[in-house]
Every structure is written in C-alpha cells, then in structure tokens.
Amino acid sequence: MNVRYLSGLLLSLFTLVVLGCGGGGGGGGASPGTGSTTLSGEVSKGPISGGDVKIFAINADGTLQSTPIPTTDGKPVTTAAPLGSYTAVINYSGPVKVVVTGGSYKDEATGATVDFTGKSLSAVVANVTGSVKVSVTPFTEMAVQKAGAALTTATIKAANTAVAIAMGLQDVDIVAATPSTTPAYMSELAIFSQAVKNTATDVAALIVKTATAIDISTGTITSSDVSTIYTTAATNAFFNLLINVPGETPVVIGSRVSAVSISAAQNPVATGKSVKISAVVNIVSGGPPADGTVVTFSASAGTLSAVTTTTNGVATATLSGINTPQTVSVSAVAGVVKSPVININFTDPLATFVITVTDTPGAHFVNNAVPISVNVANLVNVAVANTPITFAVTSGTGSLSAASTTTDANGSAAAILTSAVEGTVTVTITVGQATGSHTITFTNPNKPASIALTPDRTAGLTNNVGPVVLTAKLLPADLAIGVIADGTPVTFTIVSGAGGVLSSPTATTSGGVASVTLNSTAVGTIAVTAQANSSPLPVTSNPVSVSFTGQPTKVTVVVRTTGTLPTGTTIGGLKATVTANPSSGLTIAADPNGASSDVSLSGVGTGSTLVTNTTNVSAVTLALVNTSGIQAGEFATLVYHIAIGTFPTVNDFSVKLNGNVIDTQSSSIGGIDVAIQSVTIQ
Fold it and tell me: Which residues, at least 6 apart from 228, have a Cβ–Cβ distance to it below 8 Å?
C-alpha cells in the first residue's frame, strides 16, 4: 500500500478535489427529494478497479429500497484504476446506501491481485445532496453492519462514528474522506489487510468479527482477541516492505499506539487519600509516542484529576474521592489500545495491616537455617505491636522454628526456616485479616554443577596395546563451600566411533574425580562424554575425542641406485649404508655369515652377491657384487621389525653411498648414487 499508488496520479487527485468534499456522513435526515446529486469517491481494499457501483435510496422508516437509483445518463457506474475512483450523478437527494460489487484489487500486505467477484462492500450516508464524497471501504462496511436493519439518521451517524473511533480514525470521516489523500485512513486499511493475512481469513469474515466487537455507543473494541489482532497487525505492517516501501514516504503506522500499561503508586491505599496512576504508552515503531499524546483514564469510582498527556511515553492521573473501603478498577486508553484493568484497594488505614517480609541476603543452602524477619504496620505506617502472628509453609518442603508468635513493640517478629531438599519454599504470614508471603529458594552447595572430561593422551593404540585413561572432574555448585561427595556415580558414554570399549560404563568419585580406561578394537576416533546426576538436570561434559591407530609390526625399506649409466657400462659393485634414526624399538635379523634373512636382493640386484652387516640396526651396511654387471635401479630390500609402543615414520630412514660405484672392470662410474626407493610401514 504505502503511498506508492499516489505517484503519477496528481491529475486524478486534482479532479477529485475539484468535485468537492460534501458531508458524506452528514445531513439531517431530509426527506428524499429530486434534484441532481453527484456522488464520487474511492472504493478501496486496496483500490478496487472494475467494481460495479449501485446506489440505493433509504426510506423514511430506515428500510432499503430494493431497486437502485438510476444514473442520469442511464449508464452503469464502474470503479477505475488506479484509486478505485467513481462518479455517479443521480436525480435524488436524501439518505442512501452505496454498494460496490466485484472487480479486483492489489492486496497491500501480500502484493497479490485479488479477484473480488461475488463479493461486495458498502457505505451508508444520512443525506446526499449537491456534490458529495462517498468512499467505500471495509470500515464503511463495518458501519453498515453496525447500523443494523433500521438505517435511520441516528444509527447511520452513530455507526460511522463508532467504527472510525474503533479503527483509530477519530479525526477522520470514513465516508467523506478519500484514502489516497488521507494518510491515516490509508495506513489503517493497510493494517486491516495485514490482519486478514495474519488470521488467514477472508475480508468479509474479519469485517463481521470486527463489527461485532465494536461498541456503537463508545467506539471501543470490546473483544481482547479482536484488539490483539489489530495491534499485532499494526506491528507486522510496519515491518512489511510491501506496505512500508524503502525510499518512499512512510505511512503513519509506526506512530500507532501498540501497548498501554498502567500502575498505581501504591496499593492498597488508605480511604480518603489520593493515589497517582501512571500509564506507559508504546508505539509500533518502538519506544514512546510523541510528547503530548492524549491518554484517557477511567475508574469505576472516585474522581480522576490532574490528567496529563504523555511525556517520554508516560501520562499520569490522580484518583481520589474514595472515602469508604472498596476496590476501584482503573484502565487507560491511548489511540485504540486499552490497557489491562488494575484493581486498587482502598481500605481503613487503621484496620489494615501491611506485612513486610525479609530474609538474609545471599544464597540459601539445604540444611542451613534461614532467619525470616517480619514487620507489621498499618497504612499510616504505625507499628502494630503485641499482635498474634502465624507462620505456615504453604508450598515446598521446609520446617519452621515456630508456627506462631507475637509482634514486639516495633511490630516485628521472626522465625527460622530450614529445608533438607532443594527447591522453593513459600511461607505465608498471617496477622488478623492480612496475609503476606515470602518465597526462599534452597540449593545444594555440594551438587555437581559442571563436569570436565580429559584424556591422559589424545591418541591410543588398538587392541589394548595403548589404552587411554579418561578422567572426569566434578565441580560443586558453590566453589567456596561445596564439596563433591566421594562415591558420586559418573556415567561414561561412547557417543561416536566404532570399536570403542570402556573398562566400565560407570565410576565413582574420590576427591571429586572419577576415571575409566578407553580401548578400541578398530582404527578411528572415539568420542566419549561423562555425566553425573544433579538438579534440576544432570550435568554432562563436552565430548572428548581420542584417535586410535593400529600398532605397526614391520618396516620394509627398498633402496636403489640413481643416475644414468654411460652407454655400454653396467654396475659391477657398490657399498651403501642404510640408516634408521631413531632406531629404538627396531630390530633386524643378525647376519653371522654376512647374510641376514631380513636383507635381500631385489629388482635389478637379483642374482648378484650381497654381503650385509646388521650388527648396528641404526646403520646397516650392504655390499653388492655382480661380475656380469647390472643396470641402475632397485637392488635391495630391508625388513625392520617394530617393538610395541614404537611408531617409526617414513622420514626416519635414509641411505648413503660408501665410496664409488664401480663397473665390471673395477673402474669408478661417475654420476651414480644411491637413494631410498620406498618405505612401507605395516
């Protein structure tokens, strides 16, 4: 909606203005007469184009004539885009009902084009004569329904006025005003469209529901449900970018009152005394309305005076004139929003007691004594001395040191409350006809408040080779005095991963700590949580993840020569040393006769003679001889055996040439070296 459809329409507006703005809701109930009358206006929900306009005369008894009044030119009247405007000239003056049927419109809240075929909106006017503006909207339809079957001058005026007030248009004649030139009217129609969207109902149903809820004598909405529908819709419409279009002149939805609350400066109040009432007003866009916003206060008894308009969203009034004990209901209205009703009790100041209850500040723990102090005074703040007072636990589990006592000279009394269980305990104090209550929350300082789970290491070995110890540490609710009881059960749970095995699903605490051992039968990551019972809910640790790998058993190292042999040259012999660093945890078979079962010829070296020295596992020596000569490439393979707990890496192994590579004639060959071809850990 917004004012989008105003742009480019100045000519249309000018035409409407020139036609004049007669009193659509005015008139004095004149008898029907003849003479040319021009009716013009806008039909909007948003603007309806293609709607059929018919005008019916209203008889003197308020009944409606069944045949529409013909236009002077005999032609049908149809609403036109973009404003839903129409003009009809009839030879009649007096009360009429304008009915618009069919057509289509663009919904402000959804942007969808809505077919209005078979549906209608209407407006009633107490008198039309000369040149008259008659707009037709959902609000004028509400007024038609509110006016009832007898469309008299009085009921027509009352209905149009009541609907205007109810919809926040107190200063707008909903019949004579044109929505396109009346921002407040346009905004309330947008809110109505938003309400239709929010309630997922149709236009006709919401019109009926709203009209039914309007009090025709006051213009108030009597249904809290209907009031909530429009208050919510106003807020939604403000944030609906189809209605409040960025960059365009904003509609006035944001300044619409969204909530009113009231409070009394004191309650109860002594009879004969006055009390200040404050109303806090908020608007749709957030925060207070403009200073000077009118707030209307009402009270079921007494006199309201010194009423102010809002300053920073607050208006005040003074209630007085209550000289006998009674309850007075007070409310306030700003815009179309009514506050909840508050009840103020006016009582005999000498016979009414005010009970003030306090306890020691800070947290209260189970099995600890909590002193409750009570002071009793009357409404003129005079202590009520030497008066019986009773204490009773009315909810929760607790024990009192005394069920009754007597106030001292200062109107004071005391009792001690204890509880053996956590929770809230309410104590009710009674003095004469007056009662007061006080609620105390008991907590257990020793209960677990948090739990931290840590592993002794983040990686383990499968199949019980390298288990991981998980330790859960519990912290009490009160770190200063709380102690986790020894023997507190802790539940450990594997939450993800395959193959995980816990030494036990539960363990009990000692010194606030409980531990279990985690193993795995499969390689992968295992996640575990720890949980301990507490109140109101158990406490659970964050998941701890442990990666498990398999224990390797051997390393296979393949060595080779590198470089390019001269043409016609082959390798006749070489000597090299294979280094393992670190070598701790590695073994290789001994070679008492210069031959180790863990060192063998491979690749181009196959068929050669190999002599090894494996005495020092960190530096294994290889000597290869081949009188026929071999090509460059892989020539030997070494197998190292790995002890449990040892985890060698590929980078732990290297090889270097001892001396020069020689050919079959024992001559050195330049450009030939040795290197690791591969390292395989299994």
Answer: none
